[in-house]
Amino acid sequence: MIKLLAAMCVFFACNALAQDTTAIKVPFDNMNATWINGQNRQTDFPLTLNDKSTGAPIVTGVLFTDCYYNYNFNNPKDNTHAVSSSIGRTNEFCVNQVSLGLESGYKNAIGRLWLQYGQMISLVQEQDASVGHGRNTNIDNLKYIREVAAGYHFDKWYGINVELGMFMSYIGLESYVLNENWCYQRSMLCEFTAFYFTGARFQLFPSKKVKTELWLMNGWQSYNSYNSRPGIGSATMWRPNENLQLVANFYVAGKDTRSNDNALRFHHDHSIVGRYFSNPVARGISQAAWSINNHYGFESGGGKKAAENYMLGSSIAHRLWFFHNKAAVTLRADYLTHPGLYLAPSPSPVTPNRYTAAIAANSNHALDLLQGVATIDIMPTQHFTIRLEYGYRSANAPYFAGPGGTTSPDGWVGTPTGAWQPSLTSDEHRLTAAACFRL
Questions:
Q1: How confident is the model at residue 254 (pLDDT cuts 50, 70, 90)?
Q2: What is the mean pLDDT of residues 237-245?
Q3: Span 370-384, pLDDT tens digits
Q4: Per-residue 3-state assignment (H helix, E strand, C coil) for 4-73
Q5: 207: how many CB neighbours lie within 10 A of its CB?
Q6: Are the beta carbons of 140 and 1 closer than 8 angstroms?
Q7: pLDDT beyond 90 at 389
Q8: Domain tally for the chain?
Q9: How far apart are alpha carbons 295 and 293 in whole angstroms?
Q10: Lowest-confidence segment of 164-178, 252-266, 294-308, 321-335 by average pLDDT
Q11: Can you give the residue range of the structural domain that contains 277?
């Protein structure tokens, strides 16, 4: 499979070089995607440097900041909001992400560098266990880089891009950048899937309305590799018109589990996003859209059975825009069942706890999660958003942070835990306020 994928990429690249005489075509040209869940709503990029002779952009700069205050009604004493890659603290003001990026496609050469800082690093990047495999690994020298790539664009069809580096993943509908999503807290499905990968990406645009990506990567959300076999994947997006987007993603890899060379991981998700009303000048409802995102995956081999180690779930959202798209309201519901828990984050660094003990007693025990989110966005300009959100989560066993916290008896790191067990509850209510700036 890997040899076939590499041969295909060489064929496309050579064929593109041989036919580099066609007029430049722009994929998805004149299609406004700013309303789509998981997409940037920015159309004005003031930090762009253009070529004086041609007017073509040489480099585009982007600055992004995201700050929030979260209140968890369970009031954990250590102020830790557990089981989330979107929100890490409670009852505190937090800087979630600061990001500065430069992108260029000048004369077909592709260069991209996004730097990042803030809480998102500890929520996502520092969970990568592959950096414990050997020496000269990348947790310290890459965690402040959100995305980096070097590549080349071939003027074949509507474009072919060949890139090497670290990329944001497309497993799941929603974005790593929270402001691009309809809700601040991602769906539980997207929380349990990959946010980035390190490897090679081949983007193919065979027509104006279709994009296909082929991936070779070190592994599932990893800087490095767990063993010797790389992962492979694909993402295909079809926009038949401006009001509809369909996406299907696949990921297959072996050896994504430490010390288990025979375990195979498979993951698939697909999404449909549709807009059924648009009147940007309306003072009342100016847009209306919905999204559906479904996931299925499993691990098999090396003593694991797919029937006992899988993840299955769905997320449905509906969004209304008001006042010339200056405000919006979103409602979303998620359901996930996850026997085997190979993707489920631990609610506490202290082990064993009551939840993992229940799993150990019953190997077929499934984690069942429900989540409901209501979000209000105030967007006076495309560069600034105020977001207010209510969220509720429920599990079939104690899984979320309770009043006693999930760190230690007094809530401080370094305090001996002894026989202490993390305080966990089966449900959670929260209120979150966020301010996001993007230029």
A1: low
A2: 93
A3: 999 999 999 999 999
A4: HHHHHHHHHHHHHHHCCCCCCCCCCCCCCCCCCCCCCCCCCCCCEEECCCCCCEEEEEEEEEEEEEEEEC
A5: 11
A6: no
A7: yes
A8: 1
A9: 7
A10: 252-266
A11: 2-438
- Report the mean per-residue pLDDT for the chain: 83
Q: Say if residue 361's pLDDT is above 90.
A: no
- For 60, 119, 388, 439, the CA distances from 178, given in Å and listed in that order, are 21, 13, 13, 15
**213: Cβ–Cβ under 8 A, 6 or more apart, which residues?**
170, 201, 202, 203, 204, 234, 235, 236
**Domain harbouring 257, CATH code:** 2.40.160.10
